[in-house]
Write a structure and sequence with these properties.
Elements (H helix, E strand, L loop, with lengths): L1 H22 L3 E6 L2 E4 L2 E6 L5 E7 L5 E7 L5 E4 L8 E8 L2 E6 L7 E4 L4 E2 L9 E4 L4 E10 L2 E12 L6 E4 L6 E8 L5 E8 L11 E5 L4 E9 L5 E11 L6 E4 L6 E8 L3 E10 L2 E11 L5 E13 L2
Antiparallel strand pairs: 1-2, 1-24, 3-4, 4-5, 5-7, 6-22, 7-8, 9-21, 10-21, 11-12, 11-14, 12-13, 14-15, 15-16, 17-18, 17-20, 18-19, 20-21, 22-23, 23-24
């Protein structure tokens, strides 16, 4: 009986934690470097140019301040660490009388996210993802490693949506007889993990990625590309993130007529997003995640961030 009561207590505590942000009005919390973090006070301010600043303080043990800035007060997703510096995050704390500051500044590093295609180019060959068919969802693309024309390894490039555990998908290409099973999915049905079922016959390796060159100082970025019958690049996925890139760098995909281009959106150490989900009576609700960096390259991460009904002041 004691074990049952103890287990019930733990379950109730877990449910309480997930609902607690909604019972704190306003509320602001996240995981800072994977450790639970909550602000003791938070407020919002609309600036003269129409941008929004949300400031969260934590003075329970030391002085901490996390600032989220977005270019507008409208609901939407605002990417951090990009060339649009109107969307910005900074974190400051004091320890032993010394202050430390991190921010989503424009720094060099491995690529985190890419823009949409700027120029689709001409005369490129598909070296990217293999499409899939079957299952209850759609949109899954994979890179495949092949030995003797049989698939031996599958890596997800696009996880798709709407899939269910146990779905068996067929990998397009070859003799259309290589399959894999969905082992786990995310809440929206995007595939999380898979298991190869049959290797099939007649396949070629896809997803090793095309080399690129840049107007900036970075190197090593490789992208798997998919093309149409005219040799235009229709989609691409990061295979290797390289290093030394900056947000805004123009990237050219080598191969074809070397005229397919896109830009670096942000790099891993300076990235994230602020999502304003709703504005009700001058109170802001949404979510966030932040990777910020200091002047020496040290980083701080805020994940699973939530702000709830933050008031204007």
């Amino acid at each position: 009986m004691k074990k049952i009561v103890g287990l019930l207590s733990v379950c109730l505590l877990m449910i309480s934690c997930t609902e607690e942000i909604k019972t704190n009005d306003p509320g602001f919390q996240a995981k800072k470097d994977n450790v639970f973090w909550r602000a003791t006070d938070a407020s919002a301010h609309v600036n003269g140019d129409g941008s929004l600043t949300i400031t969260a303080y934590n003075s329970s043990s030391t002085t901490e301040e996390l600032i989220l800035e977005t270019s507008s007060t409208s609901p939407g997703t605002y990417l951090l660490g990009t060339a649009n510096t109107s969307n910005y995050a900074s974190y400051y704390y004091e320890f032993a009388g010394e202050g430390f500051e991190y921010a989503t500044n424009l720094v060099e590093g491995p690529v985190n996210a890419l823009s949409n295609i700027i120029n689709s180019g001409t005369n490129y060959l598909n070296n990217g993802a293999a499409g899939t068919s079957g299952g209850s969802g759609n949109g899954a693309d994979v890179a495949v490693s092949v030995t003797a024309e049989s698939v031996v390894f599958v890596s997800l490039l696009n996880r798709g949506v709407g899939y269910q555990v146990g779905d068996v998908l067929t990998i397009e290409g070859g003799n259309f007889d290589a399959t894999f099973m969905v082992n786990t999915v995310y809440d929206n049905g995007a595939i999380q993990t898979v298991e190869l079922v049959t290797g099939g016959t007649g396949y070629q390796t896809l997803g090793t990625g095309a080399l690129t060159e840049t107007t900036g100082a970075g190197s090593g970025l490789r992208v798997a590309i998919k093309t149409n019958t005219n040799g235009n690049v229709t989609s691409f996925y990061i295979v290797s993130r390289g290093d030394g890139y900056k947000a805004g760098d123009l990237i050219t995909i080598l191969g074809g007529d070397e005229n397919a281009t896109f830009r670096v959106m942000n790099v891993q150490s300076s990235s994230g997003e602020v999502i304003i989900e709703s504005v009700e009576g001058n109170r802001f609700t949404g979510s966030f995640k932040v990777n910020a960096v200091d002047d020496t390259g040290n980083t701080v991460t805020f994940s699973e961030g939530v702000f709830y009904r933050i008031p204007l002041r």
